[in-house]
Design brief:
The chain is of the alpha+beta class. It is elongated, with a radius of gyration of 21 Å. The strands form six sheets. Strands 21-22-1-23 form a four-stranded mixed beta sheet. Strands 2-14-16-15 form a four-stranded mixed beta sheet. The protein folds into two domains: 199 residues, Enolpyruvate transferase domain (UDP-n-acetylglucosamine1-carboxyvinyl-transferase, Chain, Alpha-beta prism), CATH 3.65.10.10; 204 residues, UDP-n-acetylglucosamine1-carboxyvinyl-transferase, Chain (Alpha-beta prism), CATH 3.65.10.10. The site of uridine-diphosphate-N-acetylglucosamine has 20 residues, from helix 1, helix 4 and helix 5.
Length: 416
């Protein structure tokens, strides 16, 4: 199995370009299936999740051409086929095929999604939304069959603020008869990105990015061209890595507004942060203060940055507390960081981190952001080589990670 090898201890220096957002891309690609002509997506990241999606779309009869960071999807000859297993198990966001196929064909049969299962991740709010739109949902040995003679607009209150459920309901409701209102909707920038694409395809969606989204169903959707927003989680990870190595890095192609919670926390611990129009410069300092971080839904501090932030806080003086209010047990990186000499204990939904010096070790990423945490930790180690296995998880979310880190002066390579 492939490993990432890291000889740390060098401050990262230079400029890193942030690619398009994974969590937008994995929703925009299936959203394109609702169109009856070609959709062109620009600024698409090179990630294993996107590659798997492209294969799934072709199995369904769409014509997909992927050249550089542009993907052309022509779903004119798309067919409604069951997808009980196989590739849908490889990524979490395959659940968007439910909303997209339901909107396009009035039916979808699909296995439960895979991806990073750091804790049980239910989809009851997605199902509740489809049922509210008039669909019948049956679970047949782990495969979900959803069908509706006619989707009808409805008022849906989400019991839990869910990114996936908000987008899935938008996808299906775009083709329902009448109006849908989603209350207590998630407000992440990726939701606005999906609504922007759907509106360019002819949908009528208002309020994306607020807690109330209104969707007026339309009879058909057409092709268009759309550029994906920058990946705020990737950007945040490089901000953290730059600070952790006491480097000086320009993180380019970001929307600084999306980074506000991250920026505020870095400033609070003593990192020098400069916000530019579409870039952020991070200048590390020799000493950092311990801080408390609460991971929340957007615009709060992103849960996807909680694990790499844990690694950074091992470099601060004193005791920091990170509490994750989105996932109750997203701490699989902690035992691995402890193997590297970190002093961290988990109490309920909090990690309590005491500043300490990390050592090189062989560690395993059990999910995407746990992997990012281990890479950040490895970059801070002053002697020896840190070996990170579970690279397949890291490749789900970081476009060109090794090349980018090498350009910033890190000694990082793949082996095996
Ligand atoms: C592909 C994608 O965009 N993934 C992101 C998306 O995941 P995803 O969309 O799966 O996450 P959600 O926003 O749905 O989950 C938020 C919380 O709600 C709970 N929940 C969710 C749905 C549901 O039907 N029932 C329920 O109880 C989850 O267990 C979790 O505790 O948002 C998460 C939270 O920002 C991020 O960590 C993921 O990177
Ligand atoms: C949890 C994540 O992704 P997914 O929902 O695709 O598993 C993530 O990006 O950190």
């Amino acid at each position: 199995m492939e490993k990432l090898m890291i000889r740390g201890g060098r401050p990262l220096q230079g400029t890193v370009q942030i690619s398009g957002a994974k969590n937008s891309a994995v929703a925009l690609v299936p959203a394109a299936l609702l169109a009856e002509s070609e959709v062109v997506l620009d600024n698409l990241p090179h990630l294993s999740d996107v590659a798997v999606y492209s294969e799934i779309l072709q199995e369904l009869g769409a014509v997909v051409k992927w050249d550089g960071d542009v993907m052309r999807i022509d779903p004119s000859d798309l067919q409604s086929r069951p997808m009980p297993n196989g590739k849908v198990k490889l990524l979490r966001a395959s659940y968007y095929l439910m909303g997209a196929m339901l909107g396009r064909f009035g039916e979808a049969t699909i296995g439960m999604p895979g991806g990073c299962n750091f804790e049980p991740r239910p989809i009851d709010q997605h199902i509740k939304g489809f049922e509210a739109l008039g669909a019948t949902v049956k679970n047949d040995h782990g495969s979900i069959h959803i069908s509706a003679k006619q989707l009808r607009g409805a008022k849906i209150y989400l019991d839990v603020v869910s990114v996936g459920a908000t987008i899935n309901i938008m996808l299906a409701a775009s083709r329902a008869k009448g109006s849908t209102i989603i209350e207590n909707a998630a407000k992440e920038p990726e939701i606005i990105d999906v609504a922007t694409l759907l509106n360019a395809m002819g949908a009528k969606i208002k309020g994306a990015g607020t807690e109330t989204i209104r969707i007026e169903g339309v009879d058909s959707l057409h092709g268009c061209r759309h550029s994906i927003i920058p990946d705020r989680i990737q950007a945040g990870t490089y901000m953290i890595a730059a600070a952790a190595t006491r480097g000086n890095v320009l993180i380019d192609n970001v929307i600084p507004k999306h980074m506000e919670a991250m920026t505020a926390k870095l400033i609070e611990m003593g990192v020098h942060v400069e916000e530019l129009d579409e870039a952020i410069r991070i200048i590390g300092r020799p000493e950092y203060s311990a801080i408390d971080v609460k991971a929340l839904v957007y615009p709060g501090f992103a849960t996807d940055l909680q694990s790499p932030m844990t690694s950074l806080l091992t470099q601060a003086n004193g005791v920091s507390i990170l509490t994750d209010y989105v996932y109750s047990n997203r701490f699989k990186h902690v035992p691995e960081l402890v193997r590297m000499g970190a002093n961290i204990r988990v109490e309920g939904r909090s990690a309590i981190v005491e500043g300490s010096r990390l050592n090189a070790a062989a560690v395993r990423a059990s999910d995407l952001r746990a992997g990012a945490a281990l890479v950040v930790a490895g970059l801070t180690v002053k002697e020896g080589v840190t070996e990170v296995s579970g690279v397949e998880y890291i490749d789900r979310g970081y476009d060109n990670l090794v090349e980018n880190l090498q350009l910033l002066g890190a000694e990082v390579w793949r082996e095996g």
